[in-house]
Description:
Layout lengths: L7 H8 L3 H9 L7 E2 L5 E2 L2 H15 L4 H12 L5 H35 L9 H7 L1
Antiparallel strand pairs: 1-2
Helix pairs in contact: 4-5
Amino acid sequence: MSDNRVTIGKVAARTGCHIETIRFYEKEALLPHPDRSAGGHRLYSTELIERLVFIRRSRELGFSMVEIRQLLSLVDGEQVSCQRVQHIADAHLRDVRAKIADLKKMERSLDDLSSQCSGDDVPDCPIIEVLQH
């Protein structure tokens, strides 16, 4: 049975997750602790690898650890409700849109500041003046 299980290094290579990240997910109980070989090496099943891919993809979309935990609890409970998943995704989307709006404001502010600066080698810099006051 253990012949279809792979070590953490192979899991990292297959999934694109760093070994430290995989261990972190185990520590945070997002990823169950895998079985161990006689030599003490972690051995990951296909199911654990699929779960890790789910976690990695969720992180790539910016879901928080709390949100991922909520999504996994729906999957683990075998009571996946598209409505519940959509609620989590919509809440996350609102957060992403708010961050984008904040970044756009920041971009405009930095653009305004940068346009006030001549870029010359002079000691009086309008950007520094604004930041100091």
